[in-house]
Amino acid sequence: MKIIVCVKQVPDTTEVTIDPETNTLIREGVESIVNPFDLHAVEEALKIKKALNEVEITAISMGPPQATEALKEVIAMGVDKAYLLSAKEFAGADTLATSYTLSLAIRKLGVFDLILCGKQAIDGDTAQVGPGLAGQLDIPQIAYVRKIEYIDNNSIRVQRITEEGHEIIEAFLPALLTVVKDINIPRLPTLKGKIIARKTEVPILTPGDVNADEKRIGLTGSPTTVIKVFTPDMRKDSKIFTGDTEQTVDQLSTEIEQIIENIK
Ligand SMILES: Cc1cc2nc3c(=O)[nH]c(=O)nc-3n(C[C@H](O)[C@H](O)[C@H](O)COP(=O)(O)OP(=O)(O)OC[C@H]3O[C@@H](n4cnc5c(N)ncnc54)[C@H](O)[C@@H]3O)c2cc1C
């Protein structure tokens, strides 16, 4: 079985700066970590590898050259191979361009059975890339997976969280899952793993290597641009309504009507 895990390197801080030219995050030189949800995706791949025979795990990432560190970290956890999509043409990608670019690398790697992504990245927070990638590859996708109940070389049965609890879903492979943190506890890289990671080459893939349509990658291929990132300031002039439910609802609706009046 061939498992692919999508791993994103994210800033280890909320103090991020936006490039005023491109309105994209400045990632170079910023303290970075492996996106926490992706550590759970890697851990789940390693658990499947332990449970089934002949499982090969490949991690892919799109990011600046420093994202090699994130891939080395998951190799130290036990991932077999890793590839980094890195070129200035890829920079500034929104989720559409990101999922397109990742899909090209996966097509280049050939046959695969299962793709594992994290539920979301802690910087963009859109949770769109996993489902977007499944769309690009035209395969079934199950998001918010909290448990894999059964898997063999042809099919998978999982528990997917819902607002009411969870539902059980089956799918034929190849398929894509996005996982939540409840699914497992990621292992720490071992010393042996760190030694292997240090020796492991992480090939860099360019737009040419994956036959990318330059109009569909990076800022050029992104219909969405982030125009401003800011921490909303905590408003001081909040108002507290007191009284029984009816009274407070009356007060609140009067207040809202007033606000709407003022906006007009
Ligand atoms: C503050 C902020 C807001 C943004 N808002 C939007 C927006 O509204 N719409 C939009 O299209 N873009 C937006 N972006 C850009 C978006 O962050 C990038 O497109 C990013 O590459 C993917 O989206 P995400 O971070 O939301 O990932 P998510 O969709 O949340 O990531 C889900 C999973 O996909 C995989 N994944 C995601 N990115 C990569 C990667 N580069 N390499 C490997 N695997 C990956 C990981 O497994 C990850 O756990 C925003 C960026 C920032 C910083």
Structural features, described:
With 264 residues, the protein is of the alpha/beta class. Helix content is 30%, strand content 24%. The chain contains six helices and 13 strands. The strands form three sheets. The protein has a nine-stranded mixed sheet, sandwiched between helices. Strands 2-5 form a two-stranded antiparallel ribbon. Strands 3-4 form a two-stranded antiparallel sheet. A hairpin with a 4-residue loop joins β10 (155-161) and β11. The protein starts with a strand and ends with a helix. The chain binds flavin-adenine dinucleotide. Residues 6-8, 25, 35, 37-38, 41, 61-63, 93-95, 98, 102, 117-118, 120-121, 123-130, 224, 226, 229 line the site of flavin-adenine dinucleotide (FAD).
Which outline best applies? globular
Rg calc: 22 Å
Q: From the helix content, strand content and strand pairing, which structural class follows?
A: alpha/beta
What portion of residues is helical?
25-40%
Whole-number count of domains: 1
Largest sheet at a glance? 9 strands, mixed
Q: Number of DSSP helices?
A: 6
The count of DSSP E runs of length 2 or more, i.e. the number of strands, is: 13
The CATH topology assignment is: Rossmann fold
Return residue spans where pLDDT drops below 50 for at least 5 consecutive residues. Answer: none
Which molecules are bound besides the chains?
flavin-adenine dinucleotide
Task: Give the helices and strands as they follow along the chain.
Answer: EEEEEHEHEHEHEEEEHEH
Instruction: Kindly estimate the percentage of residues that lie in beta strands according to DSSP.
Output: 15-25%
